[in-house]
Amino acid sequence: MEKAIERQRVLLQHLRPSLTASSLENLDSSLSASACAAGDSSAYYRTSVYGDDVVIVAAYRTALCKSKRGGFKDTYPDDLLAPVLKALLEKTNLDPSEVGDIVVGTVLAPGSQRASECRMAAFYAGFPETVPVRTVNRQCSSGLQAVADVAAAIKAGFYDIGIGAGLESMTANPMAWEGSVNPRVKQMAQAQDCLLPMGVTSENVAHRFGVTRQEQDQAAVDSHRKAAAATAAGKFKDEIVPVNTKIVDPKTGDEKPVTISIDDGIRPNANVADLGKLKPVFKKDGTTTAGNSSQVSDGAGAVLLMKRSVAMRKGYPILGVFRTFAAVGVDPAIMGVGPAVAIPAAVKSAGLELDDIDLFEINEAFASQFVYCRKKLELDQEKINVNGGAMAIGHPLGATGARCVATLLHEMKRRGKDCRFGVISMCIGTGMGAAAVFERGDSCDELCNTRVVGANNLLSKDAR
Amino acid sequence: MPVFKTPFNGYAVQFSPFYERRLAVATAQNFGILGNGRLHILDLSPSPASPLAELASYDTADGVYDLSWSESRDSLLAAAVADGSVRLYDAALPPSANPVRSLLEHSREAHSVDHNPLRRDSFLSSSWDDSIKLWTADRPASLRTFREHAYCVYSAVWSPRHADIFASASGDCTARVWDVREPGSTMIIAGHDFEILSCDWNKYDDCILATASVDKSIKVWDVRNYRVPVAVMNGHSYAVRKVKFSPHRGSLIASCSYDMTVCLWDYMVEDALVGRYDHHTEFAVGVDMSVLVEGLLASTGWDELVYVWQHGTDPRAP
């Protein structure tokens, strides 16, 4: 070994900078390896581990429970958010005063009231007054948007540690329109389409792209089957934070303290025959039923993000790296097609191709749009929603994005190094889609500026 | 033009002085820092499917840094091995008989070998143990050891006109000219401020010598007045690893460098750079010009590729 070091020293002497030519490098400067900026293909950019990567250190969620009937029907929204925020601190031993911002995705509640509730939840969770809180609303992808906002702020250097969260109590705030609608909406079809009930947009997707009732019911059954299997196998135990709350008996008015730690919407015995008997809700001869739509739920989730350099310094395990995020717009009348547009956009900006993605969490707002997106992108069913989706687990609008981050990253952790890239995506009411690409924290290729070229055809990989 | 992929990193290449289609390549694993070595003998076959065919290859326990074809026997060649040994191989004998001789005297890495083109039985080796040794093919021990350099001797080359004269290039920033009949060096050229990695004699003018250095330049010297160089050629952006005079044109020089390029120069003219080839994707460390075919060049580098091409054409062109 000594011989090798000595040889390396002799050879490195040959690369000493010298002053005779144009360069005026410092003679004492030592040589060191550096990343190749030659960028023939994105492979160089997407693989190296850098200290300014935004990484996810922890991601937790509450159980998701049926609204009005489920475990959280008598729980205040701030009591949903506080436990997950507190869990982030307890499980990582992070000093709460180091958090630069808490961003909460939330949809249905009145804006200012919800912002206040979130601020109060931060206090309940043990954050000092110095840590700011704000909310963000991008409808169904608010939770993912909150995570993306925190990642962007860390990248921008506003702060080094932040929390992206999501919160929705559809018990406390059902979907509703307050006040009157501006009659001007009649003049513009697209604006009018924004007022369509989501179920109608689902019928539009099914009708326009020919997604059959049979396919939709099958997707719902698969979702329940996978979610039930994951629950039975204890897979969600890593991500669910038990919440101590109360349940009021509607008849007697008795309060009963309970601890909620299991998603209560999953029906292990769901089958196509039973679902087939359900009546369509939004259209007489339609295909969208209560059985093949996402469940109306209550829940919250929270994700702790920081710079990789900070995480390494503090010795935190790295659950995943936040790579890219994309939000796109689509026709409001068929808002469910959002993921089919957003996923390719996010994957492309990560320098990847769809084949590179090992795991998907695509929100099942409706089976119609979920099946359409899966077929449109020609995705492998084995890679999508392997632990079930919103049709079984539930879709608390603002919390879903954060819930998906927890589910995806814990599943990637379980799957090991073969599962390198994961994607989360969802459609968004009023015609949008959002998607984000995550990478395992411990994947990296060696720095390399040469590649094996099979045929010496002198063409760059980008030229194909 | 022909390309050959070697399993290890290339270190040196040389055309056979007997067959216009034959060449040998010295390679070392892991950039010559650690691991094995291999000596390849290649033939330029006329078949376009495999333009460079391997005739024979010999494995060594340490990297092979240089090779030199014998001037007396068409199948014989010598290799400088990183374990300090100089090994002789005879391609006419079966692999089990090779190496025909292992000469282990250098205490550190042997970095160059050169057969005497006039007195055809003798050859030189230079080593990182700061010494140069003179050998003949029929003796098991060296005839003489030349110790004067204060650091690694990277190359020692015979004069093509005088059977007893050779020059050496060393990391002590000097090049020296020696006469084997004299006890010490006859000339010390302290012409560079940084290590000198290679030197070569002009094949037409016996007084002209070129040196290549870590200072990125190639300098041409007249031994009758070596205080100032005849020409200084700048153009490489990193250390120049090897320099070689053309056997066909007196003023033509080929060089290869850590900047991954192979360059051709005419030191007699103002605008000296004649051509630049950037076909290698790693340090270019070996270059040779064919004696038998004018304008035919070969190069090798740490990208594990050997290229053979005609001057003026693209080495990578299929």
UniProtKB/TrEMBL annotation, chain A:
Record carries keyword Transit peptide: yes
Protein's cellular compartments: Peroxisome
GO cellular component: peroxisome
Residues covered by the Thiolase C-terminal domain: 318-440
Keyword Transferase: yes
Domain Thiolase N-terminal: 54-309
Biological or metabolic pathway of the protein: Lipid metabolism; fatty acid metabolism
EC number: 2.3.1.16
Primary localization: other
GO BP: any one term: fatty acid beta-oxidation
GO molecular function, a single term: acetyl-CoA C-acyltransferase activity
Keyword terms, alphabetized: Acyltransferase, Fatty acid metabolism, Lipid metabolism, Peroxisome, Transferase, Transit peptide
Family under the similarity heading: Belongs to the thiolase-like superfamily. Thiolase family.
PANTHER family reported in the protein's UniProt record: 3-KETOACYL-COA THIOLASE, PEROXISOMAL
Protein's name according to its UniProt entry: acetyl-CoA C-acyltransferase
Upper classification of the organism: Eukaryota, Viridiplantae, Streptophyta, Embryophyta, Tracheophyta
Automatic annotation (TrEMBL), chain B:
GO CC annotation: cytosol; peroxisomal matrix
Keywords for this protein: Cytoplasm, Peroxisome, Protein transport, Repeat, Transport, WD repeat
UniProt subcellular location: Cytoplasm, Cytosol; Peroxisome matrix
UniProt name for this protein: Peroxin-7
The keyword Protein transport belongs to this UniProt entry's keyword annotation: yes
InterPro entries hit by this protein: Beta-prop_EIPR1-like (IPR059104), PEX7 (IPR044536), WD40/YVTN_repeat-like_dom_sf (IPR015943), WD40_PAC1 (IPR020472), WD40_repeat_CS (IPR019775), WD40_repeat_dom_sf (IPR036322), WD40_rpt (IPR001680)
Protein family per UniProt: Belongs to the WD repeat peroxin-7 family.
Main location: cytoplasm
Record keyword Protein transport present: yes
WD repeat coordinates: 103-145, 146-188, 189-231, 233-266
GO-annotated molecular function: peroxisome matrix targeting signal-2 binding
Domain EIPR1-like beta-propeller: residue ranges: 153-265
Source taxon at top rank: Eukaryota
